[in-house]
Amino acid sequence: MTLIDPVLLKYRLGSLAGRFDVDALPECDSTSSELMRRAERGIAAGTVVVADRQSAGRGRRGRSWLSAPESSLTFSVLWRFPGNAARLTGLSLAVGVALAQALESLGAVGVRLKWPNDVLLEVDGEFAKLAGILVELSSDRRGTQAIVGIGLNLATPTEALPQPAAGLNDAGVRVDRHLVLAAILSELAGVLDIFADAGFAGLKTAWHGYHAWQDQAVHILGEARPLSGRCLGVDADGSLLLDTGERVERIFSGDVSLRRV
Ligand code: BTN
């Protein structure tokens, strides 16, 4: 497996090449941590760090994230927005839309989104995690910087994981990693432009189109008390809407577990 070649990637990105500056590393602790350190030195929005291996890859809720060059794509993108972080609720959902659109453009079938930011693959009514998204925000008087970290399984993971996992190969896609990364960055550029103009409201309909459990019965664990009801999807601020039968609950915290009944 060869390292991502930034020149080949630029070629694949075509007219969008100027919006990204890609650095490919054989190994780092975490592409998001590496990008965060570089961001402190003032690098440009659109900088991308992609690594073949991460020694301390980070997932949501303090979990670790494993990566291997032959079977995964792990990278982080720096983006900047005007205003404070409160305006960016729903950003990780927007990134999910970009990922789903990109994977579909490569021919993947069965890509679904699970609130707040898992990308799943549906095969015969069963769901397995295909990719994870970790968005980390920090604000100062100039605006808000977002480090968007994405880990995508290209091949079915073989190690023991806390939930079923799938690879892009399971969605019928076996293509060069440059093509996959270029497709994701292209969709990301478009989606982040929409988000900068209209916020998540501009992407809500697209998100619902990929929602794994739209209008289905779900349990929500991790709130002060467990909730059950019909999942109505998401609101323009990215919160999850649950019809409990008595009222519509709005869930903001991403620290909950959503389970299909
Ligand atoms: C999740 O827990 O689902 C989110 C996983 C995000 C992993 C990616 S891999 C690239 C980037 N660097 C990291 O350390 N984490 C993110």
- Global shape: globular
The computed structural class is: alpha+beta
Cα end-to-end separation? 41 Å
* CATH C-level name of the largest domain: Alpha Beta
* Secondary-structure element series: HEHEEHEEEEHHEEEEE
Measured as a percent range, the helix fraction is 10-25%
CATH topology of the largest domain: BirA Bifunctional Protein, domain 2
Sheet with most strands:
7 strands, mixed
* Fourth-level CATH superfamily of the largest domain: Bira Bifunctional Protein, Domain 2
The ligands found in this model are: biotin
Count of alpha and pi helical runs: 5
Total beta-strand segments: 12
List segments where confidence is low: pLDDT < 50 over at least 5 consecutive residues.
none
Task: Provide the domain count.
Answer: 2
Strand content: 25-35%
Walk me through the structure.
- With 261 residues, the protein is of the alpha+beta class.
- The chain is built from five helices and twelve strands.
- A hairpin with a 3-residue loop joins strand 4 and strand 5.
- Helix 3 (91-105) crosses helix 4 (177-198) and helix 3 (91-105) packs across helix 5.
- It binds biotin.
- Biotin (BTN) binds at residues 30-32, 54, 57-60, 63, 65, 74-76, 118, 132-134, 149-151.
Topology:
Elements: H1 6-13, E1 21-28, H2 31-40, E2 47-54, E3 72-81, H3 91-105, E4 111-114, E5 118-123, E6 126-140, E7 143-153, H4 177-198, H5 204-210, E8 217-221, E9 227-234, E10 240-243, E11 248-251, E12 257-260
Parallel strand pairs: 1-2
Antiparallel strand pairs: 2-3, 3-7, 4-5, 5-6, 6-7, 8-9, 8-12, 9-10, 10-11
Bound molecules: biotin (BTN).
The site of biotin has 20 residues, from helix 2, strand 3, strand 6 and strand 7.
